[in-house]
Amino acid sequence: MTKPLNVGIIGYGFMGRTHSNAYRKVRNFFDVPYEPVLKTICGLEEKEAKAFAERWGYQSYTTDWHKVIDDKSIDVVDICVPNNRHAEIAIAAAKAGKAICCEKPLALNAAEGEEMVKAVEKAGVANLVSFNYRRVPAVTLAKLLIDEGRLGRIFHYRANFLQDWTISSKVPQGGMGTWRLDVKAAGSGVTGDLLAHCIDTAMWQNGPITTVCGMTETFVKERMHTETGKVEPVGIDDACMFFCRFGNGSLGNFESTRYARGHKALYTFEINGEHASIAWDLHDLHRLSYFDHRDESIVRGWRSIHVTDGDMPYMGHWWVPGLQIGYEHAFVHQTADFLGNLAKGKPTSPTFREALATQYVCDAVLASAKNGKWEKVKSKSASRKAT
Ligand code: SOE
């Protein structure tokens, strides 16, 4: 018997759309124990909230997020607003006993993240941070291959997340669409927005990062602020690079920028092990590159695995072998896992506590970029094993 599960999403921007789409589609493809009901959409502008509700089939809309928290019929609060609102909404939702899905990064910084972890653990509510790329089938497959030991000892992990949308000094900071450039709303620039994805995936696949050495740059120092109408200093990092050491002895090299002309969302990673290497590229997200030195030398080479067969992660739920899926599907997978675990009372990864580990790395990278020194990453182990 599937039970209805009332969902309230706070935020109707890009992420509000990806999450709404996932709740709508999940039951068509996965046998989840709940029927998600799009109960309420909440956003700043009434006209926009109403239009969103009509387009996506929400039963109601509001401009006041407290109404979503106070609504006793809402089971899941899904937070898709700028980073500076995550903590207050998540803490209120936890106190109200709601299950919570929160967009990445967890918070503005680790101090805020710690408060969020405390709140959800004290309340005992289900909590998940939406690091969507983990659930791209090729990325999940990479994790499985590593866990099977196919790579052997891992030496290197390198990742990039490159974009080019803020090169013009005319792009404003603040407001819908450009809040990511306003340090008050975002907490940091590419470190929290883009590298957080790479760090989450990297630690999931290769274990904890222990020390980091980073550098950042803000190429455009002043931008018009949409809310004040004034030209104001830019407080975010436009580019960030860091080296790190993982607990397993491997070395990491990460780079992110919004100034890589020609790249829109080039998230790539490559992992080099003793026996094999793996590489992945978001622009070709349904493929996983794999090189195995144990292959016979006359046929040895990089192979490009088309991750579409039914025995590959999540793919048995979609079409037939050879037909690929895309970006939106990772959110559907995340929702399927979340709802399945919710029914079993099991945590879903990455929990707030696991996402706090990513926040610790981001904070250490930013601290190192300021003081020019290697920084130790604060660590806290996960309380319960999440899947
Ligand atoms: C920024 O442009 C952004 O939308 C990030 O906020 C997302 O997390 C990333 O997946 C794509 O790029």
How would you sum up this structure, described in words?
With 387 residues, the chain is an alpha/beta fold. The protein has ten helices and 17 strands. Strand 4 (76-79), helix 4 (86-95) and strand 5 (99-103) form a beta-alpha-beta unit. Helix 6 crosses helix 8 (190-206). The model has no long low-confidence stretch (mean pLDDT 97). The structure holds alpha-L-sorbopyranose (SOE).
Alpha carbon gyration radius: 21 Å
**What topology, given as strand order, has the largest sheet?**
16-15-14-13-7-12-11-8-17
- Number of separate helices: 10
What proportion of the residues is helical, as a percent range?
A: 25-40%
**Binned strand content:** 25-35%
SSE class: alpha/beta
Q: Compute the average pLDDT.
A: 97
* Strand segment count: 17
Distance between the termini: 23 Å
As residue ranges, the low-confidence spans are none
Shape: globular
Bound molecules: alpha-L-sorbopyranose
Features:
globular; binds alpha-L-sorbopyranose; 9-stranded mixed β-sheet; 33% helix; alpha/beta; 10 helices; 387 residues; 17 strands; 6-stranded parallel β-sheet
What's this entry about, in short?
With 387 residues, the protein is α/β, with parallel strands linked by helices. The protein has helices at residues 14-29, 46-56, 65-70, 86-95, 110-123, 137-147, 183-186, 190-206, 327-344, 352-371; strands at 3-10, 34-42, 60-62, 76-79, 99-103, 127-130, 154-162, 209-217, 222-224, 231-233, 239-246, 251-257, 266-273, 276-281, 287-292, 303-306, 375-376.
SSE blueprint and pairings:
Elements: E1 3-10, H1 14-29, E2 34-42, H2 46-56, E3 60-62, H3 65-70, E4 76-79, H4 86-95, E5 99-103, H5 110-123, E6 127-130, H6 137-147, E7 154-162, H7 183-186, H8 190-206, E8 209-217, E9 222-224, E10 231-233, E11 239-246, E12 251-257, E13 266-273, E14 276-281, E15 287-292, E16 303-306, H9 327-344, H10 352-371, E17 375-376
Parallel strand pairs: 1-2, 1-4, 2-3, 4-5, 5-6, 7-12
Antiparallel strand pairs: 7-13, 8-11, 8-17, 9-10, 11-12, 13-14, 14-15, 15-16
Helix pairs in contact: 1-9, 4-5, 5-10, 6-8, 8-10
The structure holds alpha-L-sorbopyranose (SOE).
